[in-house]
Amino acid sequence: MMVVKDGPLKIAVEREDTNIIKQELITYKTVGDTIVKEIVDRRFLTNGDYIDSTSSEPLMKKRYTT
């Protein structure tokens, strides 16, 4: 589990700004031998509510070891 510590990411996520239309968090990770792009997005509605969605996309096989 990721805990968001003080810094620009925490400020951006916790910002209460009525002008925000959409926020995205993009994460690249390895799953087995594949690099995967994960996107979590939040779309804000005019009534103050929001809709969250997630998607993932396999990008390529890893060509190196870490």
Q: What pattern of helices and strands is seen along the backbone?
A: HEEE
What overall form do the CA principal axes indicate?
elongated
Give helix % range: 10-25%
**How confident is the prediction overall: mean pLDDT?**
88
In percent, how much strand structure appears in the residues? Answer: over 45%
Largest sheet: 3 strands, antiparallel
Write up this protein.
- This protein has 66 residues and is mostly beta strands.
- It has a domain at 20-61.
- 11% of the residues lie in helices and 50% in strands.
- It has a three-stranded antiparallel beta sheet with strand order 1-2-3, with no helix packed on it.
- The radius of gyration is 15 Å and the shape is elongated.
- 0% of the residues are buried.
- The mean pLDDT is 88.
Produce a short descriptive summary.
It contains one helix and three strands, in the order H-E-E-E. By secondary structure, it is mainly beta. A three-stranded antiparallel sheet has the order 1-2-3, with no helix packed on it.
List keywords for this structure.
1 helix; mainly beta; elongated
How is the secondary structure organized here?
Elements: H1 8-14, E1 22-31, E2 34-44, E3 50-61
Antiparallel strand pairs: 1-2, 2-3
